[in-house]
Amino acid sequence: MKELFIKHKGIWLILLNLILLSICILILFSFFNSNKDFEYQIISKAVNRSLLFSLVLITLNIMSVFYLLNSKYKLSLKLVLFLINFIVFIVSMLLLHFYFIINVDY
Amino acid sequence: MRFNLKNIVFVVVYVLTAVALIFYFTEIPISLKTPKNNYAAIAIRDNVSNLEKNGSLVFTQAYLNKKYKHNIYFTQSFREDKKQQFIDSLKMFLSKFEKVDVYLLAHHNYYYNWFQGIDAEALSHLNLVYNTGCGNAADSLIYKNLGAKYYIAHSGKKSISPIFYFYFLRRLDVTNHPKQATAQANRQLLKVLKFLRISNEIEEHEGTIY
Q: Quick check: B106 pLDDT over 50?
């Protein structure tokens, strides 16, 4: 198991990224849906908390790019993994963008 | 993990490409360093899904807080919900502020009926009314006669407000000129629609200023 982990670090990191991103989006959606009185403070608090998530996601994403670059996968597999990683990266950046929308007085 | 120059250059290009895409579509820097004006604003969102209501709230409230000296945002739970609160707040703003902007974030609507009881002198402080509703451009004369200096709505039968509003509010935030903001938001809107290859007829539904 340990060998498998070490051998495919890039893929594990992408999977971890996908799981974390899904959790973050689910948390945000549940906040959005449960805010029945439409209080701005509740939403802004949720978005502010997602900042940590997005920063972790971005860091892990960049790490997985390094691992993928050093891996010996087939070019086609590498491209697919890069594409998935890039999409996750864009979504993580969008989460960060939400943070900037909420804190526009920066 | 090996950090050779080739890998580092690749990661830098990877990050910069993503940042460029995000900047292009979301325009993060456009709202930097905007001075607060002395106007007030009132916004109302109609009864849609919770997710849509909260989405509108997050986006609109953030910009209203930044741009206006004072603002109130209402979210309706049924058709005539918050009517009295809206009218009272509007009256209060019109009496206290030189200019008041109104954002009607709703499907086809008849909010002009809510303005009827307010006296003409007070309504002369009405600066901008932006209406997202489909077919509400037809109400331009009503709002202009009520006293609105600018009325912005979507011509044609359908409104393309979800995209237009995103660009419009941000540009209004920076320029403070409704005409300029409308023109710029329309240009941006068409760019996005062309990119997404959505029908040209959409031009009929862009934001129009009266």
A: yes
Express each pLDDT in B164-176 by its tens digit.
898 898 888 888 8
* Range list of β-strands (E), B20-179: 40-45, 70-75, 100-105, 126-134, 150-154
Burial class of residue B38 (count of CB atoms within 10 Å of its CB; 0-12, 13-18, 19+): exposed
Name residues 12-71 of chain A within 8 A of B (Cβ).
29, 32-33, 35-36, 38, 40, 43-44, 47, 62-63, 65-67, 69-70
Q: How far is CA A98 from CA A94, A104, B59, B192, in A?
A: 6, 10, 9, 20
Which site among B9, B11, B54, B66 would you substitute to test the A interface, given the most A Cβ atoms closer than 10 Å to its Cβ? B54
Q: Do B22 and A94 make contact, defined as CB atoms within 8 angstroms?
A: yes
* Chain A positions in Cβ-Cβ contact with residue B54 (cut-off 8 Å): 32-33, 35, 38, 43
Q: What average pLDDT does this structure show over A61-84? A: 88
Chain B residues closer than 8 Å to A72 by CB = none
Nearest-by-Cβ selection for B10 from A43, A44, A69: A69
Higher-confidence position of B2 and A81: A81
DSSP letter at B202?
Answer: G
Stretch A55-74: mean pLDDT, rounded? 88
Q: What ipTM describes this predicted complex? A: 0.80
How far apart are the C-alpha atoms of B155 and B79, rounded to whole Å?
A: 23
- The secondary element (H helix, E strand) that includes residue B141 is helix B140-146
